[in-house]
Amino acid sequence: MSITPQQSDLFALLEGRYSVRGFTGQTIEKDLLEEIFQKAQQAPSNCNTQPWQAYVISGERCRRFAKSLAEAVASGAPSKPDFDVTLGFFEEYRQRQVDCAYALYGSMGIERGDKVGRGAAMLRNYDFFGAPHVAFIAMPKSFGIVNALDVGIYLQTLNLVMESHGVSSCIQGALAYYPDLVRKELGLPEDDSMQILCGISFGYEDTSHAANNTRTVRAELAENVAFYE
Ligand SMILES: Cc1cc2nc3c(=O)[nH]c(=O)nc-3n(C[C@H](O)[C@H](O)[C@H](O)COP(=O)(O)O)c2cc1C
Asked: Which Gene3D superfamilies match (predicted)?
């Protein structure tokens, strides 16, 4: 099968992308930052409603917030997500979750039984893995699963646009767990009409960070796709 240059570019992006959990301090220029979020606006959505809302925090303010959020989480701040975050993984899903965790801990040299090491690795989520930028991603509180599909597509679009500019990222469900602290930082009222679904830390990859050696695999096609004729 011949491959067009467009396909080649797309496949390189898809195959070359991985979640990055260690960043240099270098910030992204304002123009590029806006360009990235502008391009991600091309994401399709149900009835073109575009229900995503991104709150982008950059530079010193991002690092200040990371420090205070990580400290709050470490000292036991209560987690009060805006929506039901029950994961409910079972069977093969649970196995993939475990494999993913071992891939990450393995690359960081954290042993299976090392609870302290795992706790510290988990806490890095709230330090935004050292990133100089974080975006919290929200949608209206009254919206449910149908609209969350749109936000998921937006996230992947944003993720790939970043990647195409050499900007690395990690989408983080963990950043949905303390929405009140996020609203406080953003100056939003506690009863704000938006629910915070997740966050995405981003910036330039620190290639020397052990966490960035993590690679994940995907299931065989037949596990996820059934073809009918
Ligand atoms: C919706 C969503 C939530 C995620 N939440 C987290 C998270 O809280 N912390 C984290 O380190 N990685 C998180 N990830 C990254 C996944 O672990 C990662 O995408 C997956 O293991 C596949 O690896 P790859 O992105 O390197 O291909 C999340 C990814 C998605 C799409």
From this structure: NADH Oxidase
Q: Give tens-digit pLDDT for 26-48.
A: 999 999 999 999 999 999 999 99
DSSP alpha helices (H): ranges in 108-215? 115-123, 145-164, 179-186
Average pLDDT over residues 116-120: 95
CB 170 within 8 A of CB 129: yes
| 187 CA from centroid of ligand 1 (Å) | 28
Helix (H, G, I), strand (E, B) or coil at 46: helix
Is residue 136, in this structure, part of any structural domain at all? yes
- Residue 146 in domain: yes
Instruction: Indicate which atom in ligand 1 lies nearest the CA of residue 155.
Output: 31
CB of 196 shorter than 6 A to ligand 1: no
Is residue 102 assigned to a domain? no
Determine which residue's CA is closest to atom 23 belonging to ligand 1.
216
- DSSP, collapsed to helix, strand or coil, labels residue 23 as strand
Residues 80-102, mean pLDDT to the nearest whole number: 96
CA 77 and chain centroid, separation: 21
Provide the number of structural domains found in the chain: 1
Q: 10 Å Cβ neighbour count for 227?
A: 6
Q: CATH number of the domain that 195 lies in?
A: 3.40.109.10
- Domain enclosing residue 51, as ranges: 22-84+127-210
Structural tokens at position 57: 């925090």
Domain contains 93: no
37 lines ligand 1 (CB under 6 A): no
Contact yes or no for 59/27 (Cβ under 8 A): yes
Residue 151 C-alpha to ligand 1 middle, in angstroms? 15
